[in-house]
């Protein structure tokens, strides 16, 4: 696979290898708050309160174009 290339020159702007720790923490926070709302008899909070993608370590994507051919390699 020495000649394999990305088809789409889009990569994530990141300081982390993966989004998994962020997603696990946010889903755990959501379940905890929803569980307490159910016990209290309140309405469940909106989904938009949890998992803001701009607050994660990987926030957004960038178009590489022809600027970085070394990042186009797999």
Q: What distance lies between the first and last C-alpha atoms, to the nearest angstrom?
A: 8 Å
Mean pLDDT: 83
Number of domains: 1
N to C succession of SSEs: EHE
Major sheet size, sense and barrel closure: 2 strands, antiparallel
- The coarse overall form would be elongated
Which secondary-structure class do the elements indicate?
alpha+beta
Structure summarized in a few sentences:
This protein has 74 residues and is α+β, with helices and mostly antiparallel strands. It has 1 helix and 2 strands, in the order βαβ.
What report would you give on this structure?
The mean pLDDT is 83. It contains one helix and two strands, in the order βαβ. It is 28% helix and 15% strand. With 74 residues, it is α+β, with helices and mostly antiparallel strands. The chain has a two-stranded antiparallel ribbon. The chain has one domain (10-72). Residues 56-74 have a biased composition (Basic and acidic residues). Residues 49-74 are annotated as: Disordered.
